[in-house]
Specification:
alpha/beta; Glyco_trans_4-like_N; 2 domains; single chain; Rossmann fold; Glycosyltransferase involved in cell wall biosynthesis; 14 helices; 13 strands; Glyco_trans_1; 7-stranded parallel sheet; transferase; globular
Amino acid sequence: MHIVILAAARHPIAEPFAGGLESLTWHLVHGLRGRGVDVTVFAGEGSDPALDARMLGTSPLRLSDAARADVSMVPESWLREHHAYLQVMLHLQRRDDVDVVHNNSLHHLPVAMAGSVPSAVLTTLHTPPTPWLEPAIAIARSVPGAGLHHVAVSEHTAAAWRHVTEVDVVPNGVDVRRWTPGPGGPDLAWAGRIVPEKAPHLAIAAARAAGRRLRLAGPVGDPAYFASHVAPLLGPDAEYVGHLGTAGLAALFGSSAVTLVTPAWEEPYGLVAAESLACGTPVVAIARGGLPEVLDAATGVLVDPDPDAPDDDALVAGLAAAVGAAGLLDRGACRDRAVRECSVDRMVSEYLAHYEVLTPGLVA
């Protein structure tokens, strides 16, 4: 079986990962190759050399002075990404040795052009519907024999797309051999991209209300938000420890009492929660998106947001109150759930099952 994986081009597929999409792609490639599957990867500049990825880029992007002077000229970064996916899809039209193209990008072109390649195209939906991708899927599905297939990273995300297309579910996975149990400790942890939709400022406020020290980790995705909403809140009881790789994050989770997960949007899956569980650390999370699918009553406490609340005071109070209860949960049960429900091995097996349905007669 020969699988082509199209990665998202905006961030490199390398540790420390920019987010769950990049982590999934990296682990999927290594997991499939570990099962003996032939995998070709197209990924962005700076991706892990071990992936042996082909560059997703337009080399060179030639624009005349007249083209650049056009009033409709979009930002060059957008143009480069668009033409990178156009280039790879045109390349795949000429390939007769590919069994499945697995699209893990957020771009519309691999979906729109799926019917032009000889192999089946499986797209993983990593986000809620977007104005570029939603109509592309709808239009492509109207073409007979387009060969389009879709999975989502949670049942919540799948449900958000089912008005457009049929969607199965393959939850994300974490490598439970690298995310290992730790002894716990007195502090709380928070990890993720530091952007408004992840709302680390709520985690700081909740930890402070609970009288607990918080350590935060992750890439600063929105410098203005960090400067205005996070940095002023830092101090002896709220420390930003930087953008950590897997080993550093596992040590952070493993030495903490509870991990806070505070999305201000509908979290498509909630990989941080799964990573924390693998380290034996229970989770307090805002019950948004796919997070209720990751946690159960033995491994975390979910706090329901009040859509009618005028501010975040009630939410912060609820998170703070949940910390004590979560800290009493059994760390072994957290680890067991991660191994059973959230592992990379489970994720890879489920994707292989989808590939085999799309390529009857082939054996991975």
